[in-house]
Design a protein that fits this description.
471 residues; alpha+beta; eight-stranded antiparallel sheet; five-stranded antiparallel sheet; elongated
């Protein structure tokens, strides 16, 4: 067991794990990740066939959920936990000593003195104590006279910085590992004015850890507005949506204009924009003209399309038996310039509606303006209600985010204490032995930045009038 503990506490092992994890994360930045860019993976693999074999074998497309990342991370957490446990024991012992030294019961106990510095015969006791206090202050150590001794004892909490920092690191590593198992992340397209439930069917691209529970999501996402070129702080933020998070009753929980570095956060939920396109809202009518269904077709800009836009997905038209008989394909013809199409709502918005059967034969091909209708081959008709923008949003629900921030803050506090706080014991008192007076000094300098033990001894000998090296 001792050999295992020594192995886990080895700085070499920790350094090797840190180097491996750092190299893994660095390489992952050059490889498209399924959690953020699933559409790019096939193209990257096709462009790099030799590398793709290795990348897919080791799981670099899912770099932060692959076993090659999770296992070393957990081993690093175990190493850090062993190191933190050892530092906790050291801190506990040091804190106990600090409390004991600060106790009044040890005020006259010089049994633990480590230095005996002669006091010159012409230096009175009060003057000797004054010189010790002044010398300490010159060396950057706050000291004061307490009864018949000079004392400078750090508070007990100063010795806990390193232990706190290491335990916070353990928490960070564990939380990051758990986050990959309990997090859901995906992209959702939402048209202006549209509300979509935060459920898997609303996402176009989605990854979710095995511990994530969709049943607890009683909320929806809505886009209230869209600015094609939003200005904030005198800087153009580009296409910018206004996004709202609603509860199960439709009440707004959080609403915000979102753009890079200005994301919407609500609890464990984070929302930021990825892209934008156009949307066409269409109503399905029965033979009597009554509306029976309403749908929103999302359209991406596509320079290879004759209209400049292409549907994100096709809409199926069902027969009476519930089977898909025809396909509805909608696009919005864009305004064109010599350089190509303008990525904005056209001045005269319209929708190009095509209905085709399952063999690809075109049954209907018309251009509708808002309010116009077209008869469907299966009966009934459809009406174009309007053309607007849609925002493609990256939605991440990670219940560990808040805990990560807390652990990070605690780590910074621990690091600050460990780096900046003085950890020391200094007590000094005059003893008389055979008509000679000596200054009995006890020192424990666990962490001090302004001086050293040898310098303190040298300066005290000089201040008390003794010849250096006479002890």
């Amino acid at each position: 067991m001792r050999r295992i503990v020594r192995f886990l506490a080895s700085p070499r092992l920790a350094a090797a794990l840190l180097l491996f994890i750092g190299a893994w994360v660095t390489i992952a930045t050059f490889v498209p990740q399924s959690i953020t860019s699933p559409g790019e993976i096939a193209a990257w693999d096709a462009a790099n066939p030799a590398l793709a074999t290795v990348v897919n074998a080791v799981g670099l497309h899912d770099a932060f959920t692959a076993p090659a990342f999770i296992v070393p991370s957990l081993l690093l957490a175990l190493c850090t936990a062993v190191c933190a446990w050892q530092r906790t024991g050291v801190a506990r012992r040091r804190a106990r000593v600090l409390r004991e030294v600060s106790a009044a019961g040890l005020a006259n106990d010089f049994a633990l003195a480590e230095l005996s510095i002669p006091v010159a015969s012409d230096v009175e006791n009060d003057e000797a104590y004054r010189r010790v206090v002044a010398t300490l202050r010159e060396l950057g150590i706050p000291g004061s006279r307490v009864g018949d001794r000079v004392v400078s004892v750090s508070p007990w909490w100063t010795v806990w910085g390193t232990a706190i920092f290491h335990w916070a690191l353990v928490a960070l590593i564990v939380l990051m590992a758990l986050g990959s198992l309990a997090r859901a992340s995906g992209q959702m397209g939402v048209a202006v004015g549209q509300t979509r439930p935060d459920q898997p069917e609303s996402y176009g691209e989605l990854t979710a850890g095995p511990l994530y529970r969709w049943a607890s999501n009683d909320r929806s996402i809505r886009v209230d507005d869209f600015h094609l070129d939003y200005m904030a702080g005198g800087i153009s933020r580009g296409p910018t949506p206004t996004v709202a998070v609603l509860d199960g009753d439709g009440e707004v929980l959080e609403s915000r204009i979102v753009y890079p570095n200005h994301i919407l956060r609500h609890g464990s939920l984070s929302i930021y924009p990825v892209d934008y396109g156009l949307s066409a809202e269409i109503a399905m009518l029965d033979d009597q003209g009554a509306e029976i269904q309403r749908t929103v077709q999302l359209l991406d800009f596509d320079g290879t399309s004759p209209d400049g836009t292409a549907p994100v997905s096709e809409i199926g038209l069902y027969g009476s038996n519930g089977q898909v008989l025809n396909r509805l394909i909608v696009s919005v013809p864009l305004d064109s310039v010599p350089e190509g199409f303008l990525g904005r709502i056209p001045k005269d918005p319209s929708a190009h509606v095509v209905v085709a059967d399952l063999t690809g034969a075109v049954l209907l091909d018309e251009v509708l303006r808002p309010g116009e209708e077209a008869a469907l081959p299966l009966g009934g008709s459809l009406r174009l209600l309007g053309v607007d923008y849609y925002a493609r949003l990256q939605i991440v629900d990670d219940p560990t985010i808040t805990l990560l921030y807390i652990a990070g803050a605690i780590a910074l506090v621990g690091l600050g204490i460990a780096t900046l706080a003085r950890q020391m014991i200094f007590t000094a008192g005059i003893l008389t032995e055979s008509e000679a007076r000596i200054m009995a000094v006890r020192m424990r300098l666990w962490r001090i930045h302004t001086t050293s033990k040898s310098e303190i001894e040298s300066e005290l000998r000089r201040a008390l009038g003794a010849t250096e090296g006479s002890a």
